[in-house]
Amino acid sequence: MIAQPVASHFVDGSYVEDKAGAPIEVIYPATGEVIAVVHEATPAVVERAVASAKRAQGVWAAMKPVERARILRRAADIIRDRGDDLARLETLDTGKPIQETLVADWPSGADSLEWFAGLAPTVTGETIPLGRDFVYTIREPLGVCVGIGAWNYPSQIACWKAAPALALGNAMVFKPSEVTPLGALKLAEILIEAGLTAGLFNVVQGRGAVGAALVTDPRVAKVSLTGSVPTGRRVYAAAADGVRHVTMELGGKSPLIVFDDASVEDAVGAAMLGNFYSAGQVCSNGTRVFVQKGIKERFLARLAERTAKIGLGDPLDPATQMGPLVSATQMDKVLGYIAKAKDEGARLVCGGERAALNTGFFVQPTVFADVTDAMTLAREEVFGPVMAVLDFETEEEVVARANDTEFGLAAGVFTADLTRAHRVIAGLEAGTCWINAYNLTPVEGPFGGSKMSGVGRENGRAAVEHYTQVKSVYVGMGPVDAPY
């Protein structure tokens, strides 16, 4: 039990245990070892969490924004000071290489807390002159927010949801994925250490039933989910019954379009980042790589060369570049997609097997070429290190094919012609796009999707719209003109 937390939940400012809840084993993906056990939240734990959030939120909202900001900024500093320990915990929880978790997971969370701390004091209303009278607006917090996290970036997601919610005067009850429950507890502990009022950020563990209890609680004003499309449908329907605010960041099958004038080296690097980073377990990954026929074989040859050099192994070894998938279930799912791609006639360029390591849920980084739009590999989200390379000839053709999907999370374009780059991006049905880059998601920029990939946005000033509501106040400056 090398990662056993103090207790399963963090409620009203302290750790809470209730072993009446069903046990949840935390598995280290690199070895299959049980490294911790937490218990699902009982109704009593859920009730205490929501009640404490409701009680604390009003006082928090009444504070000056700059006072709230100081607390969040202190939390960001604590995270950075403890970066090594937090990165190790994240690696144990997810199986991601330590070289990733040191720079991408908790650091991104710290950036979010810091940025929204700076934003909070600048959020104001407006004054609308009407001649003698006028209207002014106030941005008010929503109240108690529920955050539901995913297992691929558990601590980053907890921070991405907590930072705007808290900065803008809300409280949050956060349910991590049952697969990766550990990081959010540390965030709650750090926020209290930084001076956050007890009850404002609570963490409860559990599976779908716990999430459903939170989403349908009448005291909850808003739900923010990161997860799959099926989960999103259920959460959206449940939240709609109470007319709650909802933001959802769901799945993707994003296109990465490489024109024949692009830098092959840069495009290959971006395609690898967009398929193999975090063992391919990234929602915005560019898993449909459209390569113009003029450079297709050169692209594939260089891609195979660079992919062959990726170092798989112990995630705690700083030299390891790619770790295991998060669970045996996920590994089996990905291997099933690989088998189906072979059966449907895609050409295997490299990889295609479970990695030959002694333990753990490792899959080789895999590339398929000659993939067609109708193949399963081009239609469904794999969420593993499997890249599909498709051919195209013209700009009009590739834009139409790229949009032929139910998803709309992300898209990327590589070309030396920036006029074409902007034109193509304008034609793509996706919420988050890149030109001559891929999968860079700074907190300053909004992140989210369209179509079945979700609603609303995280990060950037756009998040203000999703954690506040506008109160409009009409001010009469003269006698009332009534016809009665």
SSE topology:
Blueprint lengths: L8 E3 L2 E3 L6 E6 L4 E7 L3 H20 L2 H17 L1 H12 L3 H22 L7 E4 L2 E9 L2 E5 L5 H14 L3 E5 L7 H12 L6 E3 L4 H8 L4 E7 L2 H13 L3 E5 L5 E4 L5 H13 L11 E5 L3 H12 L20 H16 L3 E4 L15 E4 L6 H4 L6 E7 L2 H8 L4 E2 L1 E5 L3 H10 L4 E4 L14 E2 L2 E2 L6 H6 E8 L9
Parallel strand pairs: 7-8, 7-10, 8-9, 10-11, 12-13, 12-18, 13-16, 15-16, 18-19
Antiparallel strand pairs: 1-2, 3-4, 5-6, 6-22, 11-21, 14-15, 17-20
Helix pairs in contact: 2-4, 2-6, 3-4, 4-5, 9-10
What labels would you give this structure?
single chain; 484 residues; alpha/beta; six-stranded mixed beta sheet; 15 helices; 39% helix; Aldehyde_DH_dom; EC 1.2.1.8
Radius of gyration: 24 Å
DSSP helical segment count: 15
Main pleated-sheet profile: 7 strands, mixed
Helix content: 25-40%
Mean pLDDT score? 97
Number of strands: 22
Protein described:
The chain has 484 residues and is of the alpha/beta class. Helix content is 39%, strand content 21%. It contains 15 helices and 22 strands. Strands 14-15-16-13-12-18-19 form a seven-stranded mixed β-sheet, sandwiched between helices.
Structure at a glance:
It holds the Pfam family Aldedh. 39% of the residues lie in helices and 21% in strands.
